[in-house]
Design brief:
It is found in: Secreted, Extracellular space, Extracellular matrix, Basement membrane. Keywords: Basement membrane, Disulfide bond, Extracellular matrix, Glycoprotein, Laminin EGF-like domain, Repeat, Secreted, Signal. The chain has 462 residues and is mostly beta strands. The protein has one helix and 38 strands. The chain has a five-stranded antiparallel β-sheet. The protein has a three-stranded antiparallel β-sheet with strand order 5-2-8, with no helix packed on it. The protein has a two-stranded antiparallel ribbon with strand order 9-10. The radius of gyration is 59 Å and the shape is rod-shaped.
């Protein structure tokens, strides 16, 4: 004769220790063939529980065979006590093993890990239908809304480290060594008070809290610093490198450092940042990481800055402070005063304006032409203008005599006019000694006879 059972779904299984001392309730209904038949009631377990560490099976028989009844339909509410009394072990075929009532411990262990719950579906060899309704597995709970008390459920006084109505759990921060329940030990986890549980075999902390990490939660997570072994919630504080806001937190890691100004140093400042907390811009960068939104940007000093000098650009403003010779400006992109040229191509030269002939030392920044005083000329204003001479006297007018001079120009250094033949003087305004007849043709030679004349001179007019 085949056996048939209803099998409970998953929500009835698992940890059911708190059902001990309570009851399994359900309504069963079945119908057998009407009339005089040769069928009989079967004598099998009405409920089978399977579970515990060794997957034991225990059965219970509530069914009283109504051998004398002429009823062909059965409908009843069944209440089974969940205690070890009247339960028996069953074999792999679902048959009772004689004299096999479980101990209290065995039955409790089975309920603590219930793997299967089977309720008998066929009770008679001529049964034609059957039904199961309103199955209820009573369980003790402090949060239950029922007014009924679970008087059969024990509540033990547990030693430190143990919890649960039957001390079957370990308190948070403890582990059940090797997961041994019976005669097992709850040992305090070495997690520095930063985890609620640890692996029962290795002792490795399962989920570190308070920004800690490591097998014993004895280290701070990346991005935090401190001494996690002190066992306090605030052991690990967030790294501020240099601020806590994401826009100004430039290092993902930091380390406790007692000698540091703020007690820690940031370990991974990106390029362009320096300082214990990445709070400064490195050489060649500028900005202010200490203000929200502030960052370090490369200095824009071009090729005319002396980048070999530490701090060649201001770390806060970006102003280029050490330009190469002849260069200046905020970015070393200009020629210095008194210089001219094209800074963009690195070509700046001194003006070298002549101080006597120039109005100032500054020249045209593009051409290099100095601004000359009146009567001076030249790029550097170091020559007298045409019609002027004697540079030491300030380039005075030549004032060349129009009769005795070949033109109106004079020597720029001496101021001497260009005289016609026989003409003499700074301004070419008289005849040389031994000459006469000052005219547009110059002066003629006296040609006095040496024997008959008192000297070489003659009358300058005749």
């Amino acid at each position: 004769q085949n056996l048939y059972f209803w099998e409970a779904p998953q929500e009835y299984l698992g940890q059911n220790l708190y059902t001990y001392g309570n009851a399994l309730k359900y309504i069963v209904r079945y119908v057998i063939v009407r009339g005089d038949t040769s069928g009989v009631y079967t004598y099998e377990p009405d409920v089978i529980l399977e579970g515990g560490p060794d997957s034991s099976r225990y059965g219970f028989r509530w069914h009283k065979r109504p051998e004398d009844s002429d009823e062909d339909e059965f409908n009843s509410t069944i209440i089974l006590p969940l205690r070890e009394q009247n339960w028996f072990r069953v074999d792999d075929n679902g048959r009772e093993i004689p004299d096999s009532q479980p101990s209290r411990q065995d039955f409790a262990l089975l309920l603590n890990d219930l793997k299967r719950l089977l309720i008998r579906a066929k009770y008679h060899t001529d049964q034609v239908s059957g039904g199961l309704y309103q199955t209820d597995l009573e369980k003790a709970s402090n949060s239950s809304a029922s007014i009924k008390k679970a008087v059969g459920t024990e509540q033990c006084e547990c030693p430190p480290g143990y919890a649960g109505l039957s001390c079957e759990y370990c308190e948070p921060g403890y582990r059940r060594v090797n997961n041994v329940l019976v005669n097992g030990v709850c040992e305090k986890c070495n997690c520095n008070n930063h985890a609620e549980s640890c692996d029962p075999y290795t002792g490795v902390c399962s989920e570190c809290l308070h920004n800690t990490t490591g097998p014993t939660c004895g280290e701070c997570k990346p991005g935090f610093y401190g001494d996690a072994t002190r066992g306090r919630e605030d052991d690990c504080k967030p790294c501020a490198c240099p601020l806590l806001i994401s826009s100004n937190n430039f290092s993902p890691t930091c380390r406790l450092e007692s000698s540091a100004k703020y007690g820690y140093i940031c370990l991974e400042c990106p390029e362009g940042y320096t300082g214990e907390r990445c709070e400064l811009c490195a050489n060649g960068y500028f900005g202010n990481p200490l203000i929200p939104g502030g960052f370090c940007a490369p200095c824009d000093c071009g090729p005319n800055a002396n980048t070999t000098v530490e701090g060649y650009c201001d770390r806060l403003t970006g102003q280029c402070k050490y330009c190469l010779e002849n260069f200046g400006g905020w970015k070393c992109d200009e020629c210095l005063p008194d210089h001219w040229g094209n800074a963009a191509i690195g070509d700046c030269k001194t003006c070298n304006c002549d101080l006597q002939g120039s109005i100032s030392s500054q020249c045209n920044p593009t051409t290099g032409q100095c601004e000359c005083k009146p009567n001076y000329t030249g790029v550097r204003c170091d020559h007298c203008a045409p019609g002027y001479g004697n540079i030491e006297l300030g380039c005075v007018p030549c004032n060349c005599n129009t009769t005795g001079s070949m033109d109106q120009f004079c020597d720029e250094v001496t101021g001497q006019c260009h005289c016609k033949p026989g003409v003499f003087g700074q301004h070419c305004d008289k005849c040389l000694e031994g000459h006469f007849g000052f005219s547009n043709n110059g002066c003629e030679w006296c040609n006095c006879n040496k024997l008959g004349s008192e000297g070489p001179d003659c009358d300058e007019f005749t």
